[in-house]
Specification:
The chain is α/β, with parallel strands linked by helices. The protein is 30% helix and 28% strand. The longest helix is centred in the middle third of the chain and has 22 residues. The protein is globular, with a radius of gyration of 18 Å. The two termini are 31 Å apart.
Length: 268
């Protein structure tokens, strides 16, 4: 039977691995370190990890090849990607390739802790969905999936096209389930430009940690659901309809859709 540990950090920079060990150990989490993706994959044959934090740029196998190997072997452990070469394209590619989050280097202790807590909660939700707790009703869901006609960027945000040519943008129920109750939300203004893979809103949870929401689309905001700033509970009550964040006039919708996942595929 495999040993179970909390976090595997795959990175060839000592300063990064030491920082993750220090921050996460202070939270009572167990942390193992691998200096390469090959070494990390070898560790995973003997140890089951609840969460993996993986660098994008490595000498042997890069982070995207690591994600491809995870997919090939049907390994369900959630992966947070991190890189010093932080670009919108890398963020979108990471999320589209199966990572659950993307954090740029250098990161602060709070930024790391926010991603780790959300990642571990994501892992618990996935486990609950795979094996419902004893006594739970079969119809109960760990989270509500996006409507089939929507598109999503990773598990964090969604996009719904409209006949007018605009798109609605919002936060997935799964993302909201991975953080504590939303206490406040900071939103962009009408007229602001958003870029696919950039942070378009920030949700502050009751524990004080701030969670950035990645925009699934590039374009100009034409309407903002400012009611959420007064009553952020609307996000969790109805995330796919009344809890939308923005209406956006997209500038390159067909290109953006190529980097999103059709929510209909989640039901196959």
């Amino acid at each position: 039977m495999k040993t179970v540990r909390d976090i595997l950090v795959i990175d060839d920079e000592d300063v990064i691995t030491h920082a993750v060990e220090r921050v996460c150990s202070a939270e009572g989490l167990t942390v193992d370190v691998a200096e390469s993706a090959t070494s990390g994959l070898l560790r995973m044959t003997h140890v089951t990890y609840r969460l993996i934090i993986c660098d994008v740029m490595m000498a042997d196998v890069d982070g995207f090849e690591f994600l491809a190997e995870m997919s090939r072997t049907h390994t369900r452990t959630p992966v947070i990607m991190s890189t010093g070469m932080s670009t919108m394209e890398n963020a979108v590619r990471a999320l589209n390739s199966g990572a659950i989050d993307f954090i740029p280097k250098p990161f602060t202790a709070d930024e790391l802790l926010t991603a780790v807590r959300r990642g571990l909660k994501y892992a618990r939700l996935q486990d609950d969905a795979a094996a419902p707790p004893p006594g739970s009703y079969p119809e109960s869901l760990a989270w509500v999936p996006c409507p089939a006609q929507y598109y999503r960027l990773g598990y964090a945000s969604w996009l719904a096209t409209e006949r007018s040519g605009t798109v609605r943008v919002g936060v997935t129920d799964l993302f909201l389930r991975t953080l504590d109750t939303a206490q406040a939300i900071s939103m962009a203004a009408v007229g602001d430009e958003v870029v696919q893979g950039s942070t378009c809103a920030t949700i502050t949870a009751v524990d004080g940690l701030e969670h950035g929401v990645f925009s699934p689309v590039t374009g100009r905001i034409v309407e903002a659901n400012t009611a959420l700033t007064r009553a952020p509970a609307g996000l969790e009550r109805d995330p796919y309809f009344e809890g939308w964040l923005y209406r956006v006039l997209p500038s390159e919708l067909q290109y953006d859709l190529k980097h999103l996942t059709a929510c209909s595929s989640d039901r196959m």
